[in-house]
Design goal:
Elements (H helix, E strand, L loop, with lengths): L1 H24 L1 E3 L8 E3 L2 E3 L8 E7 L2 E6 L8 E5 L5 E5 L14 E3 L6 E6 L4 E6 L9 E4 L6 E7 L5 E6 L3 E6 L5 E7 L20 H7 L2 E5 L5 E6 L4 E6 L4 E6 L9 E5 L2 E5 L6 E8 L3 E9 L12 E6 L4 E6 L4 E7 L4 E6 L6 E5 L1
Parallel strand pairs: 1-19, 2-25
Antiparallel strand pairs: 3-28, 4-5, 5-6, 6-7, 8-9, 9-10, 10-11, 12-13, 13-14, 14-15, 16-17, 17-18, 18-19, 20-21, 22-23, 23-24, 24-25, 26-27, 27-28
């Protein structure tokens, strides 16, 4: 009897150790002290008059694509020659008709020569553009498929499937076909607050899925081979590395481990986080490369984004979560893309005269 009890205890200890190790394998932490020595980059700013109020940048073949923010009507994005810096053309007609868009938040590449897809979250529509022809209208479009979950951000995955971050449920990510068929559900929002201190003394059981998912929303993008997707948190310092083939998520917290202060508000009876006027933006953008990814970090409030102090940094990681480099930029940047072959980071500035800027690293 005693022998059997000892065996059961040993098996329980072994099981606990194995599950604890497994749990720790998909979560990493880093702080400011863990970051590599800063490499300071000097930016070369362009003077492209057609750029009005840029929000992000995208590289496609030998071209640079600059997305404009919502307040720009037509010319939703610009196409620029990468080698010469020459302005070529603009795309996008404002409206709700065929081939028109209201706002573009993301450009996606499915590998088709000369073609990109743009996403309009207001109309929940994907629009396909030929970046070499003169027409500003989209040549093809389709509505984002109806799903049980509301998708806040969507990126393209392999075989022209879609991968999105969700709200209104505990599942974090939804992988689906263009027709709306579910391929996989990954992650659980509840895991993001497990064993973590919450602001204002809130308890985990007081928070519903809608609130937690909104606290941890961010930007999600896939690399060119569609083998990885990376989401970075806008309000909380976290990074999710998603191996879509293995259906695994590696979460990195840092450089600040604490969840930013918020209070609970309500919208249409749903809990919503209110971060207040003193909150800061954390990660503004991410560029997933083939062997590493680049995360654009802010740590400043929205009102201070264009200020000359505490300018953006870029953290480079490999897909195992190892920190490779820390770059200090000398312009306030809102979005980035990286030419890995020529070792150049491109960004769009958020200063008094916003434009494109390049940093050799």
């Amino acid at each position: 009897m005693l022998r059997n009890s000892i065996i059961i205890i040993l098996l329980a200890i072994l099981f606990f150790e194995c599950t604890s190790k497994e749990a720790s394998n998909n979560i990493l932490y880093f702080s400011e002290e863990d970051l590599p020595t800063i490499k300071r980059l000097e930016g070369e700013k362009y003077n492209i008059h057609e750029i009005v109020n840029p929000r992000s940048v995208f590289l496609k073949e030998d071209l640079i694509i600059i997305l404009e923010r919502k307040n720009v009507r037509d010319s939703k994005f610009h196409v620029i020659d990468l080698k010469t810096g020459k302005y070529l053309r603009s795309k996008g007609v404002d409206g709700m008709g065929p081939g028109e868009v209201t706002v573009i938040t993301q450009i996606e590449d499915t590998g088709e020569l000369g073609k990109v897809w743009a996403y309009d979250p207001e109309m929940r529509k994907f629009s396909k553009y030929d970046i070499y022809d003169s027409s500003r209208l989209a040549e093809e479009e389709f509505k984002s498929p109806e799903t049980f979950f509301f998708l806040t951000t969507v990126a393209w995955a392999k075989d022209e499937t879609l991968f999105g971050s969700t709200v209104d449920g505990w599942s974090k990510y939804l992988h689906l076909t263009k027709k709306g068929d579910t391929l996989a559900l990954l992650g659980n929002w509840a895991d993001m607050i497990k064993n973590r201190d919450l602001p204002n003394g809130y308890l985990a059981e007081e928070l519903d899925a809608n609130l937690i998912s909104n606290v941890f929303q961010g930007t999600i993008k896939s690399n060119s081979s569609k083998s990885y997707l990376v989401e970075v948190g806008t309000r909380v310092d976290y990074i999710d590395i998603i191996d879509i083939e293995e259906k695994k998520i590696l979460t990195i917290y840092g450089p600040v481990k604490k969840i930013q202060d918020f209070s609970i508000g309500y919208s249409m009876s749903y809990q919503m986080p209110d971060f207040g006027m003193n909150s800061t933006l954390r990660y503004l953008d991410v560029y997933p490369g083939e062997k590493s990814f680049f995360a654009l970090f802010s740590g400043k409030s929205y009102r201070e984004l264009s200020g000359p102090d505490n300018l953006n940094r870029v953290f480079e990681f490999d897909y195992e979560g190892n920190i490779l480099n820390q770059y200090q930029l000398d312009f306030p940047i809102l979005g980035i893309a990286v030419d890995e072959e020529n070792k150049v980071i491109y960004g769009v500035t958020v200063d008094r005269e916003p434009n494109l800027v390049r940093f050799e690293y």
